[in-house]
Amino acid sequence: MPQGTVKWFNDEKGFGFIAQDGGGQDLFVHHTSIEATGFRSLAEDQRVEFEITQGQRGPQASQVRVI
After folding, report:
1. What is the pLDDT of residue 8?
2. Which class for 59: exposed (0-12), middle (13-18), buried (19 or more C-beta within 10 A)?
3. What is the pTM of this model?
4. pLDDT more than 90, % of the chain
5. How confident is the model at residue 14 (pLDDT cuts 50, 70, 90)?
6. CATH of the domain at 14
7. 38 and 55 Cβ atoms separated by less than 8 Å
8. What residue stretches are annotated with the CSD domain (predicted)?
9. Domain residues for 14?
10. pLDDT value of position 38
11. Which of 19, 22, 36, 55 has its CA 20 to 30 A from that of 67?
12. Which residues pair with 67 in a beta bridge?
């Protein structure tokens, strides 16, 4: 499963971006793609693992889990 680091995440808007380990395009992440209970959010510089899926505007992160 690919891993990366959260570049930024806006709690009010419910989305952000993840920088992939090893480079490549930053991935969009929506709060509904975070696997957690309760309030779904991520913090800057937090380490995560995820799957890459094709969204409406290109690749995006799904099944995002904090590691």
Report:
1. 98
2. middle
3. 0.93
4. 90
5. very high
6. 2.40.50.140
7. no
8. 1-66
9. 3-20+28-66
10. 87
11. 55
12. none
pLDDT tens for 22-53 read 999 999 999 999 999 889 999 999 999 999 99
Q: What distance in Å separates the CA atoms of residue 61 and residue 29, rounded to the nearest whole number? A: 5
Q: The tokens 């913090």 sit on which residue?
A: 43
Residue that is written with structure tokens 């959260």 in the block: 6
Decide: 29 and 18 in contact? Cβ < 8 Å. Answer: yes
The total number of structural domains that make up the chain: 1
Mean of per-residue pLDDT scores for the chain: 96
Amino acid at 46: Q
Q: Which two tokens stand for residue 12?
A: 């009010």
Residue with tokens 């380990």: 21
